[in-house]
User: Fold these one by one.
Assistant:
Number 1:
Amino acid sequence: MTTNRSTSFDVRPPAYRPRMSLWWWLSKWSYLLFVLRELSSVFVAWFVVFLLLFVRAVYQGDDQYQDFLSWAANPFVVLVNVVALAFLLLHTVTWFGLTPQAVPARLRGRPVPSSMVVASQYVGWAAVSAFVFWLVVGW
Amino acid sequence: MRRRPVEPLVWLLFSGGGVATALFFPILLFLFGLAFPLGWIEPPGHAHLDAVLGHLLTRIVLLGLCVLGLVHWAHRFRYTLHEGLQLGRVDNQVAIVCYGAAVVGSIAAAYVLLFTG
């Protein structure tokens, strides 16, 4: 633990902490994108709740499942889900874009170009989406 | 923020949640949140969904997605509040609320997915 209190041996001045506006992230497009990217996590949490409500309704029976579908068709819930889908897509695209920077991939000792890493993630995304679609819809 | 020994584990779960939700959530939300309720695609019958969701493997995969998704949210949202609203001084309280909500949500997910249906 360090404190800002000076001792006779430590005469550093207190740390300089500039006051920043609460709205700093509106000053630049890249800052705004950063904050939107971080806020995508809120919609990840929303979808966990939505998914659990759906699963619970299916477990409870056909009537509850139909009730869930009509609740989900209410314009307010649809609006939330449209916004949520936009944020989830932003999350996916930005996450794939950051992966090569976070985890430098190597194949037989040679670095893999980041475009290959990004492209392979999109292939994986397509495969997962197709599998889920097949499993749920059946065609 | 002070560094704690659990921090690497939380970052690992955050990253795992980032990958898992990036791959699975868009298609799931498109189907269950929009395509089925709005009738773009004929909703699957209850018997089929009950069979798919009743399978142990589906339950485990969905539980993993829920837990990782919640930890991902908690960790990212904590730092969003920290940087966006400059709540550094109440970081401990923010962390407790965020991770606490993720733990409560995970318990609820485990209850729904493992002990009902």
Note: The helical segments of chain B are 7-35, 46-54, 56-84, 91-115.
Number 2:
Amino acid sequence: MTNKTAYPKAWLFVLPVVALVAFNALIPLMTVVNYSVQETFGNNVFFWEGVKWFEQVLNSERFHASLLRQLAFTGIILAIEIPLGIAIALTMPTRGFWASVCLVLMALPLLIPWNVVGAMWNIFALPEIGLLGQIINGMGFDYNFTQQPIAAWFTTILMDVWHWTSLVVLLAYAGLRSIPDAYYQAAKIDGASGWAVFRYIQLPKMKRVLTIAILLRFMDSFMIYTEPFVLTGGGPGNATTFLSIDLVKIALGQFDLGPAAAMSLIYFLIVLLLSWVFYTLMMRTEEQ
Amino acid sequence: MRKAIWLAPTLYILFLVLPIYWLLNMSFKTTNEILSVFTLWPQEFTLDNYVKIFTDPTWYNGYFNSITYVLINTSISVTVALPAAYAFSRYRFLGDKHLFFWLLTNRMAPPAVFALPFFQLYSAVNLFDTHIAVALAHTLFNIPLAVWILEGFMSGVPKQLDETAYVDGYSFWRFFLRIFLPTIAAGIGVAAFFCFMFSWVELLLAKTLTSVAAKPIAATMTRTASTAGYELGLLAAAGSLTIVPGAFVIYFVRNYIAKGFALGRV
């Protein structure tokens, strides 16, 4: 990061990227901003409304409920996936044939289209025809995720753990592979316990990749739409209606463009703000 | 102790494979069997579901459409990201750090926010329902990712390589194409893999930007689920087939996959 040459013309190198991303990001963003401050009754007639929609969204209980559900969901999956991912990375084979087999199998869920993930879990968890549904009901629990909010949450979280824990595993595995064998030998000579090796050698070396893992998992889980939509449709009731699902309901379902646009901007700002915090932390660890 | 340590990854992989097995299991069953009895493997093994997909154009065209826009997207994203990543890894210029973060913010934009404006934008430029529209829309999150990954890999190459080449009389582009790109070939492969992956799995934008001509396979599936009633076997077969391209590309990057997921920063 430090010994870079100052070269103003380097802008030419980034110009194509900036042009493409700007086309895709700035124009739609401006459209959203436009909608967020206007009212329309169709026919492309718009009236200036100022910050009315923002006030409405920020004060609406519906938005608070979705935001709360979203935060709870993201918090829960981070609390499960990060420790689980680290544990799997620590115990999986380090090199050779079996390591490759593990990596390939673990990466598989990451490359399945998101609606297929939802459909697959739907078929897997349905109480009548699904393996999971049959197993849980066979153990004596009354489980039906299409009707019970708690079962719906359980299934959605299990699906996300299934879908994304491998990302954490792969990142943590990459971090672990970067530790020279000499460190472990030194620890052995010192008679360090397994916990000490983890706490003072492995964890510090994984810090950087784990920040990336948390950042990616935070961003993606906060934007989650397709998988829970296909699995539960946001239900039963509104039990699994996360921010994106609620947003699409308002924008495309009810066609309330103003409130939807205001909600989009608030939503985007929340993701941006939290991601910025993670990003700054990450850059700080990178400079150390 | 040595034996117990195998238990955790094995159980985890079993957990990963079970839903996939269930999907495959369903895809070889008749709708009748799925709805009437609960069986752990197909009793009346049938390939009808697959035959239907391979003979019905609305089904197999979905696969072609998806693969077409994914490949266009991957080529565009990686090509434009290469020089940009080089600039970020080697030079200081006005606003470089802010620009890098701004690019990343686009990776953070929820697709749900952009669905409707994208529809209007691509309709306005007459690209609605074309492969190129989906490919371009997906560059929104793939270019930042490709730049991020490539920058990580490029920063791992010592600057002395560049300097030696210039001393030897190489021009910039000759150095870049002949020496630098081969050096970071693994990084390019990984970046391409990630662009492929995120374009392949995304559905919300792909579905919003297409109607018939460029409809992705994933969208064909949702339509079938809603209109043709409960053809679960067919749905399962279509779903199983969407796993194949992913498994195929994983095989090629298997040795770099861990480093790639760390965005080249290990």
Note: Chain B has a mean pLDDT of 85.
